[in-house]
Design brief:
Length: 126
């Protein structure tokens, strides 16, 4: 998508940079590249995460309903980590929207990532 923007004569912009950042986040946290073989026939990394995200959300909810006392602290930590992963995926998807005007503002990205960092640090302190 980004290459198409630039190939069509559009100037380099912060919208393109935000798109690239979103794809980079998705690559890092999925360990997938936009050029992987599974991405064919208009199925791309952005769409892959939109499909995977609800699965992770379901796993988080399932984890929260378990009540094994010996593992409760690990489950709470794991649940927070999954929650943060879901939030990061949301940022990546928001940044890599097809339409530049629909993409997340970079200052909002920074604020969201800071909140995720704080949430993760609170999990580690307990």
């Amino acid at each position: 998508m980004l290459l198409l923007e630039y190939d069509l004569g559009n100037e380099v912009s912060t919208y393109g940079n935000v798109y690239s950042y979103g794809i980079l986040l998705l690559e890092m946290f999925t360990r997938r590249r936009p050029t992987d073989n599974i991405f064919k026939d208009n199925f791309n990394l952005h769409d892959f995460v939109k499909v995977v995200d609800p699965i992770i959300l379901w796993e988080r909810e399932d984890m929260e309903t378990r009540t094994n006392d010996s593992h409760i602290q690990n489950q709470i930590g794991s649940s927070k980590i999954l929650e943060c992963l879901i939030l990061i995926f949301g940022i990546g998807v928001s940044c890599s929207m097809e339409s530049p005007r629909e993409r997340m503002n970079i200052s909002d990205v920074v604020a969201q990532l800071h909140l995720i960092k704080v949430k993760l640090l609170k999990t580690r302190i307990r």
